[in-house]
């Protein structure tokens, strides 16, 4: 027991260095991971699908896909996993860390790029490096999917207008014959620079034990 | 041309000065000739009145009913006349300041207004009259509510709720700290021998501390409005100034009661704490109730659009007054009412009513603010003063010190809980922006104990002057010096809106995966509750189920459409003109589809005439003003608005398939025009040849729906395509008459690399 504990702790420490969480937070996340996976070593899409609170979320599928996306693992691979282990789970979570008081401007820039990259990967489902009009339309449709039947038309119009905006901001003069293929990562960054992603896209990873709160799964 | 303009500018400056001076003296002489304005002062001058009466009497007795052709009866209209004159003076002063750019760039408007007030007060007093004083009743009941309502109605909710914790800590704990620190230190100073302040006891000091400690929303607004600081700092200081009203009310009443009783027990202190919660939560509750009532009322106003703005104003004012009845915090009630009401009212009311509300609120708050500052100046000259060097100097120093200490100390604690920490620069601005203003003065005025009242008032006025003049004037260069982030110009980007929503859902989802119920989880729950229950009750018709993204998009489109209509045929868009249009984005489809309209030349002529006529009718209709016209204006009808948008979307989609490319391009941007098409269907498609099939048929819709035509920039330049001579003639005629108005161009059926676009003009019958 003692040996395995120190092994776990050193593993936590290693993970902490890699992902930037504190060992406390990693311990809590590990507990959550085990809860979700039913004490297995990996979780599959079905495990995440069965979280009841997620059922009302319009972009549930994209969120779950993001966990299994290899591009979010900082390892230059593409494709998607079938199942992920705790380490991959943590890597995805690390995208949601907030900046601290000590992060410098360059670190903030890097952090923002990383978070924007995460969002970009969520939109760019076919991994061709651009968000095409079809993909963007899909995004808006999903956003509006839970809000009743206002209709695909409105989603299309909004996506079109948004695309037009990106195009006209980034490429102000296009000849009528030119075709704007899709939103590249640079354009994506440009269009969202006003949102200050590094401070908005974060979750408070509390240092308290979260599994004592109601988790929604009826097992153990 | 530029020289001429400059000349006219220079000559208008002295002209305005001359006018203002003349008006100024006229004003002073009238107010001198009149009785005193101050309702508090009971002495009325009877002599001129009796003189007039006797004059009339002598007239009637000697001349026996000579009909007075011209008579002078000023008594009749005295009150409204003087009020109007004061307001007019205030506004002319405001006007004058903005003509002189140099001064208004350096000195904030509030300073200039106080200065003008001093001048007016000085002149009135020099004449020997009694200048009017800023009466507390006038201030609290008439001058303050418009400013607070304006602030509350347009409060940026997202920024406010994100920083609510910080704001509350500053407002409550910060004000308490200020009050007790200042009260305590003043008492300590008063105990020093030889200062002559021995008569001031602890409770009076605490009372004074509680009056002077509150940051004033009017002054903060007046100064911060001009420096355009970033949203976070603005909302911190401003939110604090709004929410500390509850604390101020409780402390003031507490200490005032007990300064009569003479001592405070522990039980009283506990009751004070309870009172604080009652005052603040009660105020918010009252405001929320009135807000919901207002929202509910606005659901039924679709047939009486003209009075919609009045509901908003009256419900809010009633909320304020009702809170004041129970000694609850009126300011918090007003804010709660505005915040509660706004999303639902805006979904229900017409666009014109929205504009009316916005402009009336801005107008009233502007007038109020101006009057407040001028009256402050006048009251300074008028009020009985008891100057005590020690007291005043110590007060000013202590104000600064306690503010800085409070902000620094609290930020240290707050930063442990904040994600976006407050830097030293932020802290400095928050501390420096803690201005005192007219609320402190009016509260001081309400004091009943007269000997210390004068001394307190003098000190309060000095502090106000110091903060407004010194801090107000220097904050702008300091902001520049410290390179504090300014407010970024937000243009309402649909991408940002999409991603804000996306982020909300994403973060909620991640929180659910993590298993803890954080910020986003509860916000999501609230949103869902709102959508499921509240919106159904408070929003009329279809709009109740409209998701936020769609309403944002619609609002933006509406704004653009109205902007284009208002700019008329010159079509100068203020934004950067981009030559990207829909066709650059739509993926190329295999096989371009063309519709082949089968209209004869006569028909085209007819169409053109009709469109021209209708466009003029549109212009007339938009310009006409009558209460009854508003009933039938289709812009106002929400239902047809939605339909109009849907049609436009449909239209755009259809046309985007037809847009083709000529060789040359022009720089004119795409212009969207709105026209009425009440006539019959003017277009028939050759269904068999059009690959779009049934979709190409124009729909049948009710009359009076608005049809939007889109004009691509390429249309003016259509010279090089091969075409029939008749078309050339027609087009030349058309382009002569109306450059960018509706035109119909023929689409050619021959396939070729260069083709023309066509414009759809489906008719509705």
Describe this structure in words.
The complex is a heterodimer of chains A (220) and B (765). Chain A has 220 residues and is mainly α. Helix content of chain A is 53%, strand content 2%. Chain A contains 10 helices and 2 strands, in the order ααβααβαααααα. Chain A has helices at 2-19, 23-37, 45-49, 60-68, 86-93, 105-123, 133-145, 152-170, 185-191, 197-200, and strands spanning 43-44, 83-84. Chain A has a two-stranded antiparallel ribbon. In chain A, helix 4 crosses helix 6 (105-123), helix 7 (133-145) crosses helix 8 (152-170) and helix 8 crosses helix 9 (185-191). The longest helix of chain A is centred in the middle third of the chain and has 19 residues, at 105-123. Chain A is globular. Residues 209-220 of chain A have low confidence and may be disordered. Chain B is mainly alpha-helical and 765 residues long. Helices cover 66% and strands 2% of the residues of chain B. Chain B has 27 helices and 2 strands. Chain B has helices at residues 2-33, 47-63, 78-99, 101-106, 109-127, 136-153, 157-162, 164-191, 202-212, 217-227, 231-261, 266-298, 308-325, 330-348, 351-382, 389-414, 424-432, 438-445, 450-482, 494-514, 519-538, 548-567, 582-585, 601-623, 629-632, 638-658, 725-737; strands at 671-676, 706-711. A two-stranded antiparallel sheet of chain B has the order 1-2. In chain B, helix 3 (78-99) crosses helix 5. The longest helix of chain B is centred in the middle third of the chain and has 33 residues, at 266-298. Chain B is globular and about 100 Å long. The relative contact order of chain B is 0.08. Mean pLDDT of chain B is 72; it is low at 1-10, 35-60, 569-577, 590-596, 618-639 and 659-765. At the A-B interface, helix 2, helix 4, helix 7 and helix 8 of A face helix 20, helix 21, helix 22, helix 23 and helix 26 of B. Chain A: Belongs to the calcineurin regulatory subunit family. CHP subfamily. Chain A: One of its GO terms (biological process) is cell differentiation.
């Amino acid at each position: 027991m003692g040996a395995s504990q120190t092994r776990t702790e050193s593993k936590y420490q290693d993970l902490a260095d890699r992902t930037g969480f504190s060992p406390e937070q990693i311990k809590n996340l590990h507990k959550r991971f085990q809860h979700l996976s039913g004490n297995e070593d990996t979780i599959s899409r079905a495990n995440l699908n069965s979280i009841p609170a997620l059922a009302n979320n319009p972009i549930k599928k994209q969120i779950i896909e993001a966990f299994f996306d290899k591009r979010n693992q900082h390892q230059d691979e593409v494709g998607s996993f079938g199942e992920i282990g705790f380490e991959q789970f943590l890597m995805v979570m690390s995208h949601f860390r907030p900046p601290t008081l000590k992060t410098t401007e360059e670190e903030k820039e890097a952090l923002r790029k990383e978070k924007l990259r995460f969002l970009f990967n969520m939109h760019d489902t076919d991994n061709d490096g651009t968000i095409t009009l079809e993909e963007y339309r899909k995004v808006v449709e999903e956003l509006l999917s839970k809000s009743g039947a206002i209709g695909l038309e409105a989603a299309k119009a909004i996506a079109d207008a948004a695309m037009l905006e990106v195009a006209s901001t980034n490429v102000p003069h296009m000849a009528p014959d030119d075709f704007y293929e899709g939103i590249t990562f640079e354009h994506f960054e440009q269009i969202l620079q006003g949102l200050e992603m590094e401070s908005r896209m974060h979750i408070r990873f509390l240092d308290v034990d979260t599994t004592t709160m109601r988790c929604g799964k009826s097992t153990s | 041309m530029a020289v001429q303009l400059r000349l006219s500018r220079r000559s208008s400056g002295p002209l305005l000065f001359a006018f203002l001076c003349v008006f100024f003296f006229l004003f002073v002489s009238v107010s001198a000739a009149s009785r005193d304005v101050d309702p508090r002062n009971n002495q009325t001058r009877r002599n001129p009145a009796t003189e007039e009466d006797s004059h009339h009497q002598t007239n009637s007795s000697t001349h026996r009913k000579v009909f007075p052709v011209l008579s002078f009866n000023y008594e009749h209209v005295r009150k409204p006349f003087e009020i109007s004159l004061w307001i007019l003076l205030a506004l002319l002063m405001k006007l004058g300041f903005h003509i002189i750019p140099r001064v208004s760039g350096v000195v904030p408007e509030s300073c200039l207004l106080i200065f003008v007030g001093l001048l007016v007060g000085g002149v009135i007093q020099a004449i020997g009259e009694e200048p009017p004083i800023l009466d507390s009743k006038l201030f609290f009941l008439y001058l303050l509510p418009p400013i607070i309502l304006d602030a509350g109605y347009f409060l940026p909710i997202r920024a406010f709720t994100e920083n609510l914790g910080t704001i509350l800590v500053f407002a409550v704990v910060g004000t308490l700290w200020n009050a007790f620190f200042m009260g305590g230190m003043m008492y300590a100073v008063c105990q020093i021998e030889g200062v002559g302040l021995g008569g001031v006891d602890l409770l009076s000091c605490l009372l004074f501390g509680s009056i002077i400690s509150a940051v004033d929303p009017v002054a903060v607004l007046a100064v911060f409005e001009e420096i355009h600081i970033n949203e976070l700092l603005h909302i911190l200081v401003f939110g604090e100034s709004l929410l500390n009203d509850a604390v101020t009310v409780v402390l003031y009443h507490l200490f005032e009661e007990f300064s009569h009783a003479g001592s405070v027990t522990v039980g009283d202190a506990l009751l004070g704490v309870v009172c604080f919660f009652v005052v603040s939560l009660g105020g918010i509750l009252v405001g929320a109730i009135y807000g919901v009532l207002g929202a509910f009322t606005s659901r039924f106003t679709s047939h009486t659009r003209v009075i919609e703005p009045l509901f908003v104003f009256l419900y809010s004012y009633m909320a304020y007054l009702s809170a004041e009845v129970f000694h609850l915090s009126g300011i918090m009630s007003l804010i709660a009412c505005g915040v509660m009401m706004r999303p639902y009212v805006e979904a229900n009311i017409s666009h014109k009513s929205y504009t009316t509300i916005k402009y009336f609120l801005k107008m009233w708050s502007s007038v109020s603010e101006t009057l407040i500052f001028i009256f402050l100046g006048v009251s300074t000259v008028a009020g009985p003063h008891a100057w005590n060097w020690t007291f005043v100097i110590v007060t000013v120093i202590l104000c600064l010190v306690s503010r800085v200490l409070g902000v620094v100390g609290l930020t240290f604690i707050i930063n442990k809980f904040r994600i976006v920490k407050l830097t030293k620069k932020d802290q400095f601005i928050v501390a420096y922006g803690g201005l005192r203003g007219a609320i402190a003065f009016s509260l001081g005025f309400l004091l009943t104990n007269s000997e210390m009242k004068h001394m307190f008032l003098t000190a309060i006025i000095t502090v106000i002057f110091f903060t407004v003049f010194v801090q107000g004037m220097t904050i702008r260069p300091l902001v520049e010096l410290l390179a504090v982030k300014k407010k970024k110009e937000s243009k309402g980007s649909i991408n940002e809106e999409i991603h804000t929503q996306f982020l909300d859902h994403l973060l909620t989802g991640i929180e659910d995966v993590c298993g803890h119920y954080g910020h986003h989880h509860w916000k999501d729950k609230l949103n869902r509750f709102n959508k499921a229950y509240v919106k159904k009750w408070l929003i009329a018709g279809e709009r109740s189920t409209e998701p936020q993204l769609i309403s944002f998009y619609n609002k933006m489109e509406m704004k653009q459409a109205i902007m284009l209509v208002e700019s008329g045929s010159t079509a100068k868009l203020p934004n950067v003109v981009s030559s990207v249009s829909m066709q650059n984005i739509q993926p190329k489809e295999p096989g371009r589809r063309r519709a082949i309209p089968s209209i004869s030349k006569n028909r085209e002529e007819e169409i053109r005439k009709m469109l021209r006529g209708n466009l003029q009718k549109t212009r007339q209709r938009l310009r006409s003003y009558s209460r009854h016209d508003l009933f039938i204006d289709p812009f106002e009808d929400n239902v047809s608005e939605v339909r109009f948008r849907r049609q436009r979307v449909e239209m755009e989609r259809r046309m985007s398939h037809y847009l083709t490319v000529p060789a040359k391009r022009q720089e004119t941007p795409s212009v969207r025009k709105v026209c009425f098409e009440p006539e019959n269907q003017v277009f028939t498609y050759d269904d068999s040849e059009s690959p779009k099939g049934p979709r190409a048929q124009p729909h049948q819709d009710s009359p009076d729906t608005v049809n939007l035509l889109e004009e691509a920039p390429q249309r003016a330049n259509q010279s090089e395509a091969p075409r029939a001579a008749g078309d050339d003639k027609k087009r030349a005629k058309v382009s002569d008459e109306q450059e960018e108005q509706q035109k119909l161009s023929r689409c050619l059926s021959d396939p070729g690399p260069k083709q023309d676009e066509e414009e759809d003009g489906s008719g509705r019958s």
